[in-house]
Amino acid sequence: MAKLSLEGLKKIKESVEATVTLREGGYRAKVNIHMGTCGIASGARTIMTAVLDEISKRNIKDVIITTSGCAGLCSREPMITVELLGTAPVKYVDLTAEKMREIFEEHVLKGNILEKYALAIGSETTF
Amino acid sequence: MATRIFRSHMLICAGTACVSCGAMKVRERLEQELKDRGLSEEVRVVITGCNGFCAEGPIMVVYPEGIFYGKLKPEDMPLLVEEHILKGRPVPKLFYVEPVKKEVIPRMKDIPFFGPQVLRVLRNRGLIDPENIDESIAKDGYLALHKVLTQMTPEQIIAEVKKSGLRGRGGAGFPTGEKWEEARKYDHFPKYVICNGDEGDPGAFMDRSILEADPHAVLEGMAICAKAIDSNEGYLYVRAEYPLAIKRLNLAIEQARNYGLFGKDIFGTGFDFDAWVYPGAGAYVCGESTALMFSLEGKRGMPRVKPPRSAEAGLWGQPTVLNNVETFANVPQIILKGAKWFNSLGTEKSKGTKVFSLAGAVNNIGLVEVPMGISLRSIVYDIGEGIKGGKKFKAAQLGGPSGGFVPEHLLDTPVDYESLEATGTIMGSGGIVICDEATCMVDSARFFTNFCVEESCGKCVPCRVGMNVMVNMLNRITHGQGTMEDIERLELLGQHIKETSHCGLGKTAPNPVLSTIRYFRNEYEAHIQDNRCPALVCVDLIQFRVDAEKCKMCGLCKKACPTDAITWEKKTPADINIEKCIRCRSCIQACKFNAIE
């Protein structure tokens, strides 16, 4: 392999940094995917795949994904909770992969709550 | 370049301690479980260096939540994956339980063991994969090397290290910058950089853990030193008992070479540096710098007369800088963050942090990094969370066979080179062994003295003969045949050995005896005058007997006794025949009512 320059060093740093910041708890937004039996049965996994795909496609470093169990509203699954650091968490319901991508773009990245998919704002905090 | 994103990272500690508790089997099962559930693509399993909390091994930390799981077994993995990873519910039954208040603590950052620690040298411990150079680079690895090669003159490097106040972490505390400055002065080439990883103190494992957790920090420190003194060659002398450290170092060197961070023309600046690992054959004296160099040259490891110092004529008679693993690991951050950042922590003469391996009778044994100046009490009680089994603290042994015992009333001594020396011990390389009330001080002193007798290279008379005489006296005392004059003789002889020995081994070898006489003279006197071992350790001086009031006449002790020394019949208390008793303690362990003393 060719000799590494400072640029090379920085490139490696940038590409791996995201993985390491995850371990230091430095993040701006959290997407919590509800993955109880009901969630999984109604397709939470496709939601998870969509979020992971968006994050890696856009090379996002400050968003983390967590999973949690059933939120108690099984009829409205798949469900997620989006929480930007310092703001109230928002629950989105009846999701599909497409809706998930839209929410990611608008809410997670731009900070605009998508009311048309939202169930509630300011429910329990999960941080 | 976009790397694959994983939603969760599971960091398994693969330091020697955790590996020997079965961390690799846990990992195997975990990976299988993730694969079976189709989660391998979104969850990453990372193997890290020592996490530090060895008592809880095998350890895994799961991010992003930062949940700490300890004492894992392969059988726990299906539950852990199903609950935590699939359903997002951390598994309480695998959480850490705090030993004093029995509190369950899920998150690593909330565990008291980690609280008072300041991680500088160990900043990457349990956080990066030591076998992957990219992760080290993500944490600013080799950035300091780039800085010194492109923006600093050797004089500036040395000035910065001097200003930082960094002192040798191997034990003696020689100022690192001064050592480098002296080596730079001489004009015969080639010059050498040596990393001393011959960690021989019983109970010490700091250097091993650093090498296992963050090998690149040490390598980078060596390269920076090389630039400062105009050297192009380095050696890492690591004891052969550390196979994992050696493996990771070799891997790290190879990866650095592949990236051109080691080898010729580093960063295109025309500077060449390469390093090799040399496994030491395991002689304690080879931790002494001149003996180490002889050993590297293929000769018998024996210290030589100084001067000339190694900086002038070291390896193969050439100017050489020899520093300890931890010293080198400190260097890159001093360069990157500055001397001021470094010396913002610590006391007047001891700056920065110190890594200790905490072992013995404390609740939390493990690897800890604390600011210089913290009290021993804080290490024992805040980080170590007190003595196991509610017993009483007796002494802290620092510095291994070269160090001494610090008693209870001196526990508030701040950890720095000078304060510790004043108590009769040394900072040493950082091994702390905690002794509880069941430890006999005379016996412990005998253990360390015996260690030095075995490890003495035999070159000079005081150490070779003197230590033997000391151990014979100690043996007599522990067998109940000592005289009061022995104590004075031990003190006198110890002083002579300290003053007249040739190298550091002999100069410090009497410390364990001298410090125990100083602080625990009463125990020596009890052995000699009363024929009694207060801690019930020295077998010739103890007699077991049955407390008839506590005895429930169950007969378990009789079954346990291998020499048939116990007489017992139904409905009568047991009795011990002293003639037959070999003091093996089997009966004490068998008794459920503490009736045997």
Strand content of chain B: 5-15%
What is the count of structural domains of chain A?
1
CATH homologous superfamily assignment of the largest domain in chain B: NADH-ubiquinone oxidoreductase 51kDa subunit
Morphology of chain A: elongated
Strand content of chain A: 15-25%
Q: What string, H for helix and E for strand, traces the elements of chain A in order?
A: HEHHEEEHE
Largest binding interface between chains:
A-B, 44 and 43 residues
**Total domain units of chain B:** 5
- Please identify the structural class of chain B as seen in this structure: alpha/beta
- The percent of residues in helical segments of chain A reads 25-40%
Cα distance spanning the termini of chain B: 70 Å
- CATH class term of the largest domain in chain B: Alpha Beta
Shape of chain B: globular
Q: Which stretches of chain A of 5+ consecutive residues score pLDDT under 50?
A: none
Helix content of chain B: 25-40%
> What's the number of helices of chain A?
4
Name of the CATH superfamily of chain A = Glutaredoxin
* CATH fold annotation of chain A: Glutaredoxin
Biggest sheet record of chain A: 5 strands, mixed
Distance between the termini of chain A: 43 Å
Describe the overall structure.
Chain A contains four helices and five strands. Chain A has helices at about 5-20, 35-40, 45-60, 95-110; strands at about 30-35, 65-70, 80-85, 90, 120. In chain A, strands 2-1-3-4-5 form a five-stranded mixed beta sheet, covered by helices on one side. Chain A is elongated, with a radius of gyration of 16 Å. The model of chain A has no long low-confidence stretch (mean pLDDT about 80). In chain A, strand 3 and strand 4 (about 90) form a beta hairpin. Chain A is α+β, with helices and mostly antiparallel strands and about 130 residues long. Chain A has a single domain (about 25-120), classed as Glutaredoxin (3-Layer(aba) Sandwich), CATH 3.40.30. Chain B has about 600 residues and is α/β, with parallel strands linked by helices. Chain B is built from 22 helices and 18 strands. The radius of gyration of chain B is 26 Å and the shape is globular. The interface of A and B includes residues 25, 40 and 52 of A.
